[in-house]
Design a protein that fits this description.
mainly alpha, 0% strand, 18 helices, 459 residues
Length: 459
């Protein structure tokens, strides 16, 4: 999981969030290890501690250096690796604790292991610094025949392989990687299904129908990954080149295909055998039919491609971002190193005779070796289309959503403005009516008072 998250664009954010916790636990670990070192115990068992420390240092030097030498590396690289691996890590604490808890070792072994681990960890930087002088001393005092043998061995191990070997290595490596990844996913699906799904379905549905429903669900979940195990890399460039290169390659290639079919059939057979207690021959026939339906289904093909595309896009999101920002060279850059490429700018006058014409129209006027020259598109049209079309569709849909949102907000604003204007007009009219009514009442009251006053004067 950590390796997958490290390839995403959120890796820096995750690392920033996790760093304080990592530092905290690192400090706790080293403090706890230091507290487990008992100086009195070291003084009491100094002889076993010295012997084990020397054994670890010398043993790691000899075996690590020998292993790296056998892998084809030079003596200098081998000795640098050997001097860098002269410590025992925290895994030794686990083994020592387990041995003490199981009472297969005495109790005094644990503090000795802790002391040896601390001493070897402390000596590791000094051993790394001693790697260069030790290599010079050893190489100087080696016999001439031994030096010649080691140089020839490392040179022969680093020679490039032939095209045929590289095709076989690339094809077998891709097949093994596919089988390993999708096989682990299929095993996980089977384990979760038989551990959680099947008991849950059997709890609510009676026996025959529960088994049928469980088989359908499990096979539907397995189908994209089983199809990838069988079909993936069956039409790759390595497969095609090996198939066309020699008839002797066809039998091994067919064997790899048959092996993958058998692996997919084995998963289906296992699921059916766990759920249905019927004849083995009948289960095998049903498994063959199920594998055929899985491989011929367009729905399964689309799901497998969608799952793989989504996973690879998310997995390579950080790499794609670096390529887009120019921090990393794109994949096609390495394929162009063997080509004799030249970039040039030409200013073509508008009145030139062959301006605006295609190469097909000018085929007779251009030399044949130039006309038949291979044209390399970098990046390829497929890569451009696969990158541009999704972005264009995402932008188009996003712009439509933005326009819809803006239109909705504009409609609300216009409705509110219209309502406000109508309310203001209504308030204005009501104020006019109110003032008229008030003025009428006041005028009437004044008239009545004047009439009463005149009547009193007349009396």
């Amino acid at each position: 999981m950590g390796s997958i998250l490290a390839e995403t664009i959120e890796a820096e954010k995750i690392e920033h969030l996790v760093t304080p916790v990592k530092d905290l636990f690192g400090a706790i670990f080293f403090v706890s290890v230091g507290m487990m070192v008992d100086p009195a115990m070291i003084g009491q068992y100094w002889l076993p501690i010295v012997i084990i420390t020397l054994t670890v240092i010398v043993g790691q030097l000899v075996f690590a250096t020998s292993g790296v030498l056998l892998s084809g590396q030079s003596l200098k690289t081998a000795m640098q690796c050997g001097f860098s691996l002269t410590q025992i890590g925290e895994f030794a604490f686990i083994i020592a604790t387990l041995g003490v808890s199981l009472k297969v070792t005495s109790s005094f072994l644990y503090p000795i292991v802790v002391a040896v681990s601390v001493i070897t960890i402390f000596l590791t930087p000094y051993m790394i610094r001693l790697a260069e002088p030790a290599y010079g001393f050893v190489y100087k005092h080696l016999p001439e025949r031994a030096r010649t043998f080691l140089d020839n061995y490392s040179a022969s191990s680093s020679t490039p392989t032939t095209s045929k070997d590289s095709d076989w290595k690339r094809y077998i490596g891709s097949i093994l990687k596919t089988i390993l990844i999708y096989g682990i996913v299929c095993v996980a699906i089977c384990g979760l299904s038989f551990g959680l799904l099947v008991p849950f379905i059997e709890k609510w549905i009676p026996s025959p129908w529960s088994d049928i429903l469980s088989a359908i669900i499990i096979l539907l979940a397995l189908s994209p990954f089983l199809r990838s195990i069988v079909i993936k890399h069956s039409h790759s460039e390595s497969f095609q080149s090996l198939w066309k290169e020699s008839r002797a390659n066809r039998a091994p290639l067919v064997a790899t295909i048959v092996l993958r079919y058998a692996l997919a059939l084995g998963f289906v057979f296992y699921v059916l055998a766990r759920l249905f207690h019927i004849s083995v021959v009948l289960i095998l026939l049903i498994a063959l039919l199920a594998v055929f339906l899985i491989l011929s289904s367009r729905f399964t093909k689309r799901n497998a491609q969608r799952i793989e595309h989504t996973f690879m896009t998310n997995f390579r999101s950080r790499e794609l971002r670096d390529e887009y920002l120019g921090d990393k060279k794109p994949e096609y850059a390495s394929r162009l190193l063997s080509k004799d490429l030249h970039l040039a700018d030409f200013d073509i006058p508008a009145e030139i005779e062959w301006g605006g014409k295609t190469l097909a129209e000018l085929g007779k006027e251009i030399p044949r070796d130039v006309y038949n020259e291979e044209f390399i598109f970098s990046p390829s049209p497929d890569e451009v289309i696969s990158a541009v079309v999704p972005n264009y569709m995402n932008g188009y849909i996003y712009s439509a959503l933005i326009e819809s949102f803006c239109a909705e907000q504009n409609s609300r604003m216009l409705a509110m403005q219209t309502a406000s204007d109508a309310a203001s007009s209504m308030i204005k009219d009501l104020n006019v009516q109110y003032n008229r009514a008030r003025q009428g009442v006041i005028t009437q009251e004044i008239t009545e008072v004047s009439a009463g006053a005149e009547a009193l004067n007349a009396m």
